[in-house]
Prior knowledge:
elongated; five-stranded antiparallel sheet; mainly beta; six-stranded mixed sheet; 48% strand
Amino acid sequence: TLDGPVIRFPSDPPSPAPEQSIELGSPPPLALISPTLEIPAAPIGDRLRLTLRWALYQPVEYGSLTTFVHIGHPDQPPVAQVDIPLQAPAIGGPGEIVSVDYEIILPATLTPGRWEVFAGAYTAAGTLIGPAGEQRIQVGTLELLPAHFPLPTRHALRARLGRLTLVGWD
């Protein structure tokens, strides 16, 4: 199990970011490398584990840059997320590649189906914007399967109430 975020650095100096990368920010302090992932199906309530690689273009000071993974739909707020600051003092420099492991708990209130997985980064000044003006980059889709346990309600129900869904009541 992960006790906390895992950030791995290569032992050899890395080559510059490959062509398959998406730069974030202006000027870009980093890029998301190989942004399309194969994401396995997962049941509601389980933990989703992903590893993303980031190319750093400039030094990152302690706590100044945070990366994130969101699960949701493009036009809505995330339904699950994890934010991991790049915390090691003065990590990174031009051309350095950092791998970050993310672990997201899939909430018991989600509905089965296809959900998008997004990634991005932000600083104290705000979200780092992608090349097309996006605040988060889609890295894959997740097929969410029914949970291995019953809903956390005595009277399970799925009723649409406008933009909300009632999943049950007690």
